[in-house]
TrEMBL record, chains A, B:
Record-given protein name: 3-methylmercaptopropionyl-CoA dehydrogenase
Ranges for domain Acyl-CoA dehydrogenase/oxidase N-terminal: 76-156
Acetyl-CoA dehydrogenase-like C-terminal domain span: 459-584
Lineage of the organism: Bacteria, Pseudomonadati, Pseudomonadota, Gammaproteobacteria, Chromatiales
Similarity comment: Belongs to the acyl-CoA dehydrogenase family.
Protein's UniProt keywords contain Nucleotide-binding: no
Molecular functions per Gene Ontology: flavin adenine dinucleotide binding; oxidoreductase activity, acting on the CH-CH group of donors
Keywords per UniProt: FAD, Flavoprotein, Membrane, Oxidoreductase, Transmembrane, Transmembrane helix
Role description: Involved in the assimilation of dimethylsulphoniopropionate (DMSP), an important compound in the fixation of carbon in marine phytoplankton, by mediating the conversion of 3-(methylthio)propanoyl-CoA (MMPA-CoA) to 3-(methylthio)acryloyl-CoA (MTA-CoA).
SUPFAM superfamilies assigned: Acyl-CoA dehydrogenase C-terminal domain-like (SSF47203), Acyl-CoA dehydrogenase NM domain-like (SSF56645)
Transmembrane regions listed in the UniProt entry: 507-529
Cofactor(s) in the UniProt record: FAD
Stretches assigned to the Acyl-CoA oxidase/dehydrogenase middle domain: 161-269
Catalyzed reactions: 3-(methylsulfanyl)propanoyl-CoA + oxidized [electron-transfer flavoprotein] + H(+) = 3-(methylsulfanyl)acryloyl-CoA + reduced [electron-transfer flavoprotein]
Length: 589, 589
């Protein structure tokens, strides 16, 4: 149940698909390149393997619990957090002004994969801190930034996001928490549900970001404001002083991520500070959404990678059946076990290249000097976000389940570890917006709202890739055929929604998840094909490690042959329309 | 989290698709008919809802545990078991000679769905007793039958199957447990793993069926014999007396089914009695396999039904979003929630009709007076078995996962109940032969071994159904089209394996699971179409409840439109062959 960072694949993707060096050079980051990235990833990999991964089972068995003084984290977590923070990992992508290292988002993403693979429950804590830093960094005034950002960047304090309420889950319009003006601050009152790492004893302070309503706020989502509510109020020196009226009332008893405390938070006239403008909280949430949702998608990749490593080891070790010479056979030789391992491996590679390419779009949007170029990259980032969140997390369900299946009976026994990955993974398509929410975002805001233009731009690039495959002597005809069919499926699905959504008000909603999954497989397949093109070019030039590069050709082929055909089933669902989905009365269901 | 037996759908399938009355009449069971079946099911449904279902959460929270005197079952289970046994439910399908009621297997199957829905961990205990009765009833001599069968049939004692060992899971050839002759009995020594309900305190005795090797046995699967090893040896009156040397050493700490003790069993010169002929144990296991595997498939249906009922209730109750008039909207109105509910409902109906039709093939094979007819039904039974086991249990993973997804954040919280179904369900594709084992059985013994003849006979019947659809004015063109495409996919997949398996030794193994799943969807779709034909006939004749019958038309349509297209993805995988699956070296994986 050890973990090793798959640095070779990450390195390949950063260098050859993301084109990391060019990305950094264009931004004037001359000192940052893929070699530096490799060094950073290697350092992170060591911490992940040696410190965080060994605590993963411990945290599952002995989850966070309520103590007399608040939440007590799992054994060993406080020390691990200190090592993590002391090494500066919280500040990787933070601006230099606030003590950060200002490294590209795509490198931060590659690094974060490690934390989530090693110990997803632990990694949720810095992930939430990153979200808080982003919200404060983008929207708070300079005084609040100066007070809170540096301590979050060093990891001395952690951050949380307080959004959901009992009657306001996917529906943020229903938020009821109140904020009453009181001089230079506000008094926040209400309860927040499902607050990840809402309390713990690992740091001196916790910085809660809270959505609440001002007294004069308009109803619905246009009346929500964002507040900073620290666990301990800061004294004149900016150090934690008086205890604020924010408390964790109880913890959820969850299927997985036991070490990540999921808190019911109570605010009773807690002192809070307004971030940005009143009634603009939802917009601020949206600016953080690309990063937060891509982070959860990344968790889907990371936990699948961890499950794969476990299953691969088991498949090598487990003997079943006997050869004629009396020697026993490791199950890794059985074709159906290979099918499962190859499904895991090829999907993981597709997930990884998509996660990193999507993360790099944020960098490209930020670094671009031409506003039109920046806008194009931002639109692509926006388009990718629900795919990364939705597809990677749904796929993680299948892959962690295969991890159990490869282990056979042992997979169902908790001590083996596969079951924990499966349980931990199940939250991913739910939090930070369910798959259904991602799919509506994809179909609505990202597709129909711009008449499918940004999606058409993506499909056009895919067509170009298909044309390249056709015009060069590519090794595998099956790849070309499967990829072309998948692009055609995506094109047809897009057109059918553009044509049909206006006339059928249920079409977008009922087709959305299949539509999203279709584009998940298609984007994954496309970027695998692009990876294979690079691998082939390197092989032809005699560059690189031929074992790795031919493996990439094979995983691409496997993905195209065995996973891309699922786009056909998704398309059929989209084309079927909403009639049979919506036809039954509630009583008939 | 209550449970109600979906008696209307079961009644429809038994009357209209299984043709239960004709089946019973042909067997000379004039007193048994669908009306009697309805009465029996209603009685079982009451016990399931009122006694077993309320213990499902209790058993999950307070699972079976090791005590000083052996395994202690979950609170309330002993009393529930007594009610269950006292009502005669163990003896439903047992021969009259041994105190049974000799009812058809398909009715027993319909009843068993209830126990598994209500409390799967509990229901495993009588399920194992049924297996033990079948083994003893078919293969033991009259003296052993007289000693053990009546007490198992009343439920005074329970039965277990002791097959797996640490190094002999899917590979039974590796079984090492020894049986030493000692006069009229044998002394059994060895350890058995994953023994379901291997020990408990609910009954006076436990009858273990144990696979072991005689001293002179040939190696491999041809040297395995079957023994009865009672927990307490029987005295001269046939009552439990001296304690036998069989003990549970420990329990597995499992992902789910916590109330079902999964035992490591130790036999140290335990007294055992040979069942049937020496070295014939594997053949005896095979005769039980159809029933045992179909029972596990049935569990997949049953737990999906339970998960559906929970999710449906949640979707009705949970409010999110607000209408213009200020009223809030239950999420059941959202198209994507409908998509998930309809996926669950339509798949569950397809699973149920397949499970009952397959179970009826066992009755038809048994009741047929013409040996050729009996052989035909037995071949169909054999063909269905791996599909029922493989497809229903794999589908149960997706459906119980949808049960969580519909609940959103609440689904990840254990108290809501959805998570338990998801955890419980995960064992189903593993025990009683993994999905991979089912798929190899399907492709090898059930298909290639007879040159695809039995599968061709099934496909021919499906073609006839398609022809019927074409020649009658059927309401939904999309159903006809999707069903025809799926039949064509099945036909092509069959031919491609028949053509390719000889030349490519990895083809059958690497394609097998996709091949099995293809036929799962296809069989489910076919029987849904046949159900819809019956429903349409009734509607045209003004018979039956139009709400139910039109719902059946809609679920059939949904299944054909949204689930049958998956056969295309399965076919593509089968046609891709084994090359990319097997190409990587172990080091490249």
């Amino acid at each position: 149940m050890s973990y090793l960072h798959p640095y070779q694949d990450v390195d390949f993707v950063l260098r050859k698909v993301v084109d990391f060096d060019a990305l950094c050079a264009a931004a004037g980051h001359d000192e940052i390149n893929a070699d530096l990235a490799a060094t950073i990833l290697s350092e992170a990999g060591r911490l992940g393997s040696e410190v965080l991964a060994p605590l993963n089972r411990v945290g599952d068995r002995e989850g966070a619990k309520m103590g007399a003084q608040g939440v007590e984290e799992s054994p060993g977590f406080k020390d691990a957090y200190r090592q993590f923070a002391d090494a500066g990992w919280l500040s990787l992508t933070v601006a230099e002004d606030f003590g950060g290292q200002d490294l590209p988002n795509c490198l931060g993403t590659a690094v974060n994969e490690i934390w989530h693979s090693a110990n997803m429950a632990f990694a949720l804590c810095p992930m939430l801190s990153q979200g808080a830093m982003e919200a404060i960094g983008h929207h708070a005034d300079d005084a609040l930034k100066a007070l809170y950002l540096p301590k979050l960047a060093t990891g001395e304090w952690t951050g949380t996001m307080n959004i959901t309420e009992a009657d306001a889950g996917s529906d943020l319009a229903a938020i009821k928490t109140k904020a009453k003006p009181a001089g230079d601050h506000y008094l926040i009152t209400g309860q927040k549900l499902y607050i990840t790492w809402g309390d713990h004893g690992m740091t001196d302070n916790i910085v809660h970001l809270v959505l609440a309503r001002l007294p004069d706020a308009p109803p619905g989502v246009k009346g929500i404001s964002l507040f900073i509510v620290p666990k301990f109020l800061l004294d004149a020196k900016g150090e934690p002083g008086e205890r604020n009226a924010v408390n964790c009332l109880s913890l959820e008893h969850k299927l997985g991520i036991h070490a990540s405390p999921t808190c019911l938070m109570d605010f009773t006239d807690a002192v809070g500070f307004l971030v940005g403008e009143p009634n603009n909280g939802l917009a601020y949430m949206f600016t953080m959404m690309n990063h937060a949702r891509q982070s959860v998608g990344l968790q889907g990749l990371a936990i699948s990678e961890r499950a794969y490593q476990e299953a691969l080891q088991y498949a090598k070790d487990r003997l079943q059946g006997t050869r004629r010479d009396g020697s026993r056979i490791p199950i890794i030789e059985f074709p159906d076990v290979r099918r499962m391992l190859m499904t895991m491996k090829s999907c993981i590679e597709a997930m990884r290249v998509l996660a990193l390419v999507a993360a790099a779009e944020a960098d490209r949007a930020l670094y671009a000097t031409d506003p039109a170029v920046a806008a194009r990259h931002f639109a692509r980032l926006e388009l990718y976000t629900p795919i990364v969140k939705g597809w990677l997390t749904e796929l993680a369900q299948e892959l962690t389940s295969l991890g159990i299946q490869i282990d056979g009976g042992m997979g169902y026994v908790e001590e083996a570890g596969a079951a924990q990955h499966y349980r931990d993974a199940r939250i991913l398509p739910i939090y930070e917006g369910t798959t259904g929410i991602q799919a509506l975002d994809f179909v609505g805001r990202k597709m129909l709202a711009n008449h499918g233009e940004t999606l058409l731009a993506l499909l056009t690039e895919m067509e170009q890739t298909a044309a390249e495959l056709r015009s060069t002597p590519y090794r595998y005809g099956s790849v070309v055929k499967a990829f072309e069919a998948a692009v055609a499926a995506g094109t047809r699905a897009r057109q059918s929604l553009l044509d049909g959504a206006a006339a059928d008000r249920h079409l977008a909603g009922s087709a959305s998840v299949n539509f999203l999954m279709l584009f998940g497989y298609l984007c994954g397949g496309w970027l695998m094909v692009k990876s294979a093109q690079q691998a082939q070019t390197m092989l032809d030039a005699g560059e690189g490690d031929p074992q790795l590069l031919t493996a990439k050709l094979t995983t691409t082929r496997f993905f195209c042959e065995h996973l891309l055909p699922r786009t056909g089933a998704c398309l059929a669902s989209v084309l079927a329309g909403s009639e049979s989905t919506m036809a039954l009365t509630v009583e008939q269901l």
